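Example record

One chain of 261 residues, shown exactly as stored in the release files.
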Amino acid sequence: MKTPSLIVGCALISLFLLAPSSASPQDKQGTVNVDSLAVFSKMSTESDTVQTLTKGTVVRILITVTNEEGNWCGVASQNGSSRIGYVLCSALDQPKDTPVVATQGGSRLQILIGSAHVTAQTSKLQAHRSGDVDPVGQTLAPLPGYSWSSNPKTLVIAIRRGCPYCDASMPFYRRLGEQENSSVLHAHVLVVMPNDEATGSRVLSKGGLEVQAIFGQKLEALNVSGTPTVLLLNSNGRIEHTWVGQLPPQLEKEVINAASE
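Predicted structure tokens for this chain:
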């Protein structure tokens, strides 16, 4: 006869084997390491934003999941038990002992549930550790055709086609470009997109955005795990500030102030 704990464990394992992506249940704390972090209703940057967290906010991590968009953490408020939504795990500082889980995109999928361990077949394998290093303070390599030293500061706008929050942020990005042209900003505005030039140009044209752009660039090279993301870098390529998601007015003002100094 199976014990109740074993039955529960088997049920959990079955649930994860049926899920479209890997999952690791946990209950750990995480600290927001970016200036603004969007909390999404689903594990997709195309879902609704239910809340925006500021840097230093502590949340409880209920579960980590990996899908085609990246590593997601289901989070609750520090004193709450109900999940408020999902955030990109890279925007949270987490304990170093977070277990390794596997994603879709591998030959085998490993699911870790406490001390239990099962293996299931998948198509590919990509292992990851939950919680990445805070990008602020890191120095990025120059991008193709652009050197950070060509301007005192660079305001990088990382967007992609099909991102609704990127589209919704276009009026703000257009204003940044206009303020650079009028010398209000002391930073050069640079759009970076993973899409090809033809696709990216259509996105910028539709948004009325007339700024320098680099297309076909993997956003991982900028330590960007979700779009939209805005980075402020100095002339050495050091990241001074980051803002993630569609920004509320007060954070838009914060971007402008930081880029005007």
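Notes: Residues 1-26, 97-132 have pLDDT under 50 and may be disordered.
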